[in-house]
Records
---
Amino acid sequence: MAPVQVHVGVCGAGLGGLAAAIALKRGGAKVTILEAATELGEIGAVDEVRTWGLNGQVVTRVDSARVKKISGFPHYIARRDHFHAGLTESARRHGVNIIVDARVNKLESTPDKVTATTTKGDSYTFDLLVGADGIKSFVRQQLFPNVQPRATSKVAAYRGVVTRDEVLSKIPEAKSLLSNTMDMWTGPNGYILTYPLSGGKELNVVTSFCKDYYVEKMEEVDIDEFRAYYKDYSPAIQSIIKLVNYTQRWPLLVMPPMPSWTNEHKNVVLLGDACHCMQNHTGQGAGTAQEDGVFLGRVISEVVRGVLSIREAVSLYEKKRMPRAWTKQQLSQVSGELNMCSDPAGLAKRDQASKPELAAPGEGSGSSAAFPELPPNYRSWQVFDSPDSVPGIFYYDAEGDADNAVCEYLQEQDRERGEVDNITMVGKCLSRKWWGAVEYNGID
């Protein structure tokens, strides 16, 4: 059985678009990326959480060794631009055709084809087009012109990067912040997150603060105003904040639940921030976009093998990815509320709940010596880095989920068509998926 020729266009070369392109190419599709920018690039990860006050008391902590043990994966930190460069190189090595300075400004689709035209007048025709073009997605605007992301809270984000040399020369006591850890200072109406980048050569400072209005767009911010947000925090973290010489106010917009991520023909589909942008309090925006891409690549691989049609594959993608993304959007909102709790009673209740993480080290559970053995039913309120509280994030396998979705769908088809063998009880569609590998790989 010869592979079905499938040409997929990806609109946007961000982290989600590149992940999708790599997965689609691995699945046997021909892939072309249309990127609006003239050059490729990205702009842009906790071990201990402290209270905001003068003593910076530790209120919760996470054992990264334990996380690795129970989830099976270590926690790596990378600069977005470094990670983006790696994905770009991987895409090119896989044979993805990346076209820059190709801003799409017109889409036309029929049941069989999609044509994308750029501002330069170049047209490209695909069997499937993926809109991975971010929060201001042109593709989404063509499919759902009335759907727009919106601010669901008055919280905005601020970012800054300082060098290791500067930190050590001006704040020697802050050396620990450049080690292999992440630290968070939580306080009423805001928090500060610090973690090392580039092998400890840099320290990333990411903060959030609740304004008195809904921030809908990026804004310039006076640096003294920014520093004043955290004037009551511990001296240690204030010293770090004073090293940040420039920042901007970033809106934290959320896409409302959408009725669909595709056009009527199921050959234009959205991915990542284009359809599920979320607040940043769980650090899952780019990760969720990459999950989308990996899932989509896997189901499209079954189109290449002749098991599914594009319409069927994209429908499975929508069915499975839409509720998962919406769950993460809600989790991110709640995580921010927990981090920035301002009610004294609620704050005391929150911090009391994480006391087990600060107890004396336990033995016999495999925990590292510096951390306690937690009760089996323990759930941390610091959800963004807790595999116990949110195992669906830490344990998720996008390829496995996609393949299972295909198998479930084929079983449904077998039952509806009555094509289940009476003796073996094996369905015809499902059997063809696995036996097809014999023909596909040219095995006699």
Note: DSSP finds 14 helices and 16 strands in the chain.
---
Amino acid sequence: MKHRRSLQLRVQDAFTKFMNRHLRKHDWKPQIVPFTGYGTADHVRVLARVVLRPSKPKSHLGMYAEQFLNQRGWRNFFRIPVPGFPVTIEAGEHTIHARTDHAGYIDLHVKRPGLEPGWHNIALESAECKTMMAPVQVVSADETFGIISDIDDTIISTWLPRLFLAAWNSFVMTEGNRQAVAGMARMYQKLLDDHPGAPLVYVSTGSWDTLPFLNRFMKRHGFPKGPMLLTNFGPSQTAWFRNGRDHKRYSLFELARDFPNISWLCVGDDGQHDPMLYRQFSELMPDRVRTIAIRELSQTEQILAHGSTTMLADNKDALWKPTMVPELSGEDGDELLLQLQEQKDKEKN
């Protein structure tokens, strides 16, 4: 029996169809937006999206307007996906013909691509738009160390999730005003220097539409390049908006499945659900988590996060704290790195 799509998905599909028909009449063109994937010699995960974009402005005024809009975060959230769009994927020894899903996404695994460990580019081609290259990090089967990192309030101060401030940061403030959390880039650089070839995977409840900004922000502040697992803010089969915790939880187990030999350093913050999610993950799969490192928000950030200087006392998930793996906490990356080094020294002795 065919499963009936929910009302919210049918509304989204109708809106997407209407906007595609309308905008194509005004010379909007499909564009492939590649995401950073990951994999091993056994398989690689290729991620991308196809959206409609306006043709290049012809006047100087149009170009200046385009530059101004690119500085504002709100523009990232207004993209029209192209569902069912044909894309040819050239991944190592394989050529795959695929189509985007109802929200314009491509997310597929290519088995045994014949790629050596390191960074590679996967070609995404279509007759209707420019060929794009999707970066993919292939990790050696011998690698046993990896980092999973949250983004919001872990590496970038966003003042989430209070609605007004979140909206101000996302839709109004220029990208240059975003602040990086002190020491986090240095910590990741040092850890990856000690483990060349290890993956650093950024997992966030943030929208895929913010990826261009995140890439520019990370490059500007010296954060190592790594695959990202973001989410789609759109409706699901059961709700108008997707559950961020479920996305993170599912992503953790995907990484455990895709990298069976890696034990992860899980880095997050105590502003929302990271401690609970990482503890659950470590309890269910203790051999896949070596340490949990939590950045402590300032009192101001805690108040903005949930109206209190501490995590809510009635949040049972937040208070649940099994002792399956070591857990560290600090105000910034420098404090966390110092504790990680001390932990490493103790393990040697």
Note: DSSP finds ten helices and 17 strands in the chain.
---
Amino acid sequence: MPDFFQHELITTIHDLRTGGLDQMEEMLVAATQESKVGLVLPVTASDMRAEPFDKIVAELAGADYVDTIVVTLGVAPDESDYQETLQKVASLGSRCKVLWTDGPKVQGMYDELIDAGIPVNTPGKGRSVWTAFGYLLADPSIEVFALHDCDIVDYDRTLLSRLCLPMVHPALDFEFCKAYYARVTDRMHGRVVRLLVAPLLRALMKIYPSNRFVHFLANFRYPLSGEFSLTRNLARTNRIPSDWGLEVGTLAEVFRNTSLKRVCQADLCRLYEHKHQDASLHNKQAGLMKMATDILTTIYRTLASQGVILGDGAFITLRSLFLRTAQDCIRQYAADARVNGLDYDRHGEETMIDAFATCITTAAEVFRADPNGAEAIPNWSRVRAAFPDFVDRLRDAT
């Protein structure tokens, strides 16, 4: 998406189609002599057996500027899952480690933390990422942590190079980099971003025009992207949510813990394709409805923690304003799709925004019943204060 547009609060790093992978990797090899990179790959047993994972492993073989690769294997109760993962990543050599989060060693370490009052009992991507960060923190030479999903159908390592280069280049001083991209095949995807998050943030900016956090979120072109990189310091100090609020919760922690001038987003310049969640319009505890509710409650709780008072009137106004704003977005998407020759189901899109509007009310009820919610996983500074040797033992458990 080559353009020059810069958002107000954060830096946007575009792909202007003027540099190639070889040039970027040459810069990365030089830069990572002083600033080593650790890559986190959270994967489930089912994703590990899917075709995209094999392609990702093959591509990463050429990314020799990455010092350490940590594959965190979750939703994998059988040892055969672990052994198969080891075989699949064997081509990456000794720099690739597999953290089996369902294995007896890591589970025993989780139990130790839980007994000490540190809540790590909720399995999922959040805990897998948090565990991998702990593993990497045990190596003082790793300065940059990068993360991407493992279900990317059209993966090539250009994605990784564009994610890492803003963080390691000696002429730059960013602490956090978030990816963005266009999710398009023969139609537009990214329904939660397009039909919920974008109009929601526009509505919130009208209701709370002076709130910097809402404005910060609105500066990201794809705030729910699963790809980001960050400094060692942020990996140590950020808390990590364990539900679908992971991406928004991560941005909330970045907003809290670093200067906005040290935050950027990078255009991966690709038509990003991965597996799609079911809409689950009639089941609020599954699919996109569950995702939407978790995202909304994360936003509500973050606003409340900043002193914003969220009463019944606020939620009524938000729902009404969201619907009007989302309807305007649909008109815009329909025009964009028509000019670009994409299939566009306007009725289906209208149905989705109606369902997302009900999630605004559902999330409000969840928020009122439990304003604090499930506690985020504490940062690694707290864990290391309680258990100074924990990260070293975590490495031994791998």
Note: The radius of gyration is 21 Å.
---
Amino acid sequence: MDPAEYRTLHESQMENNNGTTALNVFMHIAPPVFSVFHTVQLLAVASVAHIPVRFLIEFSLIVFPFILLVTVLHQLALKITLALAVVSTISAVHQIRNRLHLVPFVQVPGKSPQFLTCVRALVNLTTAVCILAVDFHCFPRELAKTETFGFGLMDIGVGLYVFSNGIVYKVRPAEERRIDAVRLRRILTSAAPLFLLGFARFFLTNEIDYQLHVSEYGVHWNFFITLAFVKVFGTIIMDLVRDPEVIKFVAITLLCCHEMMLHLGVSRYVMSADTGRADFFSANREGIVSLPGYLALFLASVYLGWIVRPSEEITLAKKFLRRAAKVALIALVCWKMIYVCEDMFGVSRRLANMGYCFWILAIGCSVTALFMFFELFVYFVRFEEPKSPDQIIKTDDFCIPYVPLILEAINSNGLFFFLIANVLTGLVNIMFQTFLLGNAAALTILVYYMFMLCVAVSFLSINNVKLKIW
């Protein structure tokens, strides 16, 4: 097909999408969580120590099924999720039924929760698969980014990145929080790589005339610039807030103010097709107007991170279970709020409105709670005897490293993983007219693409190389 004609086809496939349901999107996110559960169980039973073999098993059971789920098996997402949930529950109950006498003594490490590694890595993994899969015909259009309002699998990417960065934000002691010229310079310096990536993406895509959809963020704005501004403003607000308990009220207040401004006419201004893009603000109105929503999402995620990450070395199982239950309860409230917001004013990624923020929090809290229950299960099943803080300091065997190699590697170099995924996605789109390829060719390219990505980050992880700048 002629390049100009193909570009028109590509853009038409990305426009006027009204999405699917919030539940259907979650049914594509949940299966990898259960896949991780069964992969860890298999590796523990088989005692696989050989790294290449372990890598192939993990790729075959975690990455490859997800590629199939978002392409040729997407219509079976609900059945697959329910089947995996039932099998996982039966397996877990079977393994813990004879260990109830250990309940009062089971301990979980407090300082380095591995469930957060799984959450963050899963966000990166799903995003990497989807940013290329969406360019193929086998990817369902209802899961692509929505034009105005609605639920799409591709809509959750930037929101979950904000969530995953907020949940691991380290709240500084109150006595160390002060805003001065030195602190501001450090904040801007830490965000500078993201600004540079944003500018580089803009100039590169313009130079090669890469297909872009200005309704996502605007003409000059993009994913990296949004993350950079959220990092800067979020860090400043966190330095001003003395009590971590106050963070949730700041997030709620900011989100309510944002929604009110949208209702006062800002929403119509952003969404209107008649609004020109003559100046910088109007050209990038989606990215600029959505910032308060993403900032509120970041602050809410920081509060959740403060809940789930204890400061003590040892956490008793009952206390850990209460934390997991609290996160699950927050998830249920957020799921309810999604439908309340949808009925009142819709859910929009372009605006990052209240409905969108509750949607991201619902998904993030649900996945976090599932992995928290999984971590508790691991320590419950493998628990031997109680240890004191002094014993834990002297020994290294208290922490049970259950996280799959691929997820650990992705989390260690998350931004590098995402950058390489973007570069390879661009190269594939330059080399192939992806929308014209059949299912077999699309799956072959996707599997090879993800295999190379996972090999690259696993190689870095095995050699203890970290390229993190966030």
Note: The mean pLDDT is 87.
